[in-house]
Amino acid sequence: MNQEKVSSINNNNDSKDKPSISKIPWVRSDLVRHKKGQYYYETSDLVIIALFCALGGILSTFVGYLGNLINRILGIPFGGGQILAGLHIFWIIFIYLLTNRKIGVAFFTGIVKGFIEFFSGSAHGILVLLISGTQGLIIEIILILFLSSNNKMIISFASGLASTSNVFIQQLIFFNSQIPPLFIAFIGGLSFISGFILGGIFPIAIYHLFSKSTILNWRKTPSSPHHLKYIQLLRISIIFFLVVSEIAIFSFLLFQNRFSVQITGDIYNPYTFYPADFLDRQVTIEAELIGDVSYEPPKNYTGVPLYIIIEAAQPVSEIFLVKVIASDGYFIVLSSTEIQENPSLILTMEPTGLRLIAKNLHGSYWVKKVNRIAIEGN
Questions:
Q1: Is there a contact between 331 and 340 (Cβ–Cβ < 8 Å)?
Q2: Are 204 and 93 in contact (CB under 8 A)?
Q3: What pairing do the DSSP bridges indicate for beta strands 295-305 and 283-290?
Q4: Which of 20, 61, 103, 332 is most exposed by smallest CB count within 10 Å?
Q5: Chain center to CA of 186
């Protein structure tokens, strides 16, 4: 009898010494494995990510083109489509909820969804990988740091910030000094509202509808883990890995983006021009730059003719004007007739970026660091 009392007292003392999950406010029971051999990401998690990323990536591509249509209806070059920006975030949050709010899912979803958008023909080209990955990373970090992934307002706030990031990423990479900061702030605010509602509140509501039905009965929430001493290290490691990965992706795309041009305006097919996509259409010409204060002797240049780049964009009108715009805001204007009659107008790659070689034209037409071509119909 005495032995039983001693054993009971010892057990009570042991239980007091052990950490209790309820006493540690930042611990989530699904952050670590419950048993040896039990994987953090279950097979069902990977199936959910693959299935909904495929669906979301393809639909996001069409949402992007729908945004361009809204811009055209409103008569503005860009920005109006941000009212739909939250629909891109919807899938990241929805998948995050379906996988029991596991760490890493939002970022991983953003990357996978970005790849699918890229391969399904996104108008942003490979830049969509950076945009989507950054959106997932922002959601991931906010939900980890706030330690309240069950709070609807925090999830919606994270969605709004993630949605807004696409505006500033595009301005950072395709900087144009002629765009008023007030306009950038306006479309950024529009994107935040869209992300908050369509990317946060909307998927949460859909998830709750799923939860009330029998659809998610096959999903099981992991039991509370016994090994808690590595939890903080796990959080720090995940955040570090996500930040380093995002920096690496951003650096790579920023380097690659020096050799890309946004094709916009009155066209049926807005796209991002990459020289690698037109290798079979390149030509080599000999040209000489003669300007008022600059001169370059004749030499060979290899690049893609400007008329081929314009044809791929499918202009709405047969007669149009083309603005070739540099990253510092400098631009020149060419008519459709000038472009069609001069196949020696080419975009070539230089160490500092893409350059327009304008054979037989004044040196002022040789635009350096080209980052956008705008087509305006008459």
A1: no
A2: yes
A3: antiparallel
A4: 20
A5: 20
- Hunting for tokens 């811009």 — which residue is that? 71
Tell me yes or no: is domain 263-377 CATH 3.10.129.10: no
In sequence order, the 6+-apart residues with CB closer than 8 A to the CB of 8 are none
- The span from the first CA to the last CA of the chain, in angstroms, equals 100
Q: What is the C-alpha to C-alpha distance for residues 174 and 188, in angstroms, rounded to an integer?
A: 16
What does the DSSP assignment read for 119-154? HTT-TTTTHHHHHHHHHHHHHHHHHHHTT-TT-HHH
Rounded Cα distance, 271 and 261, in Å? 9
Domain positions in the chain are 21-257, 263-377
Are the CB atoms for 119 and 126 separated by under 8 Å? no
> pTM score, two decimals?
0.54
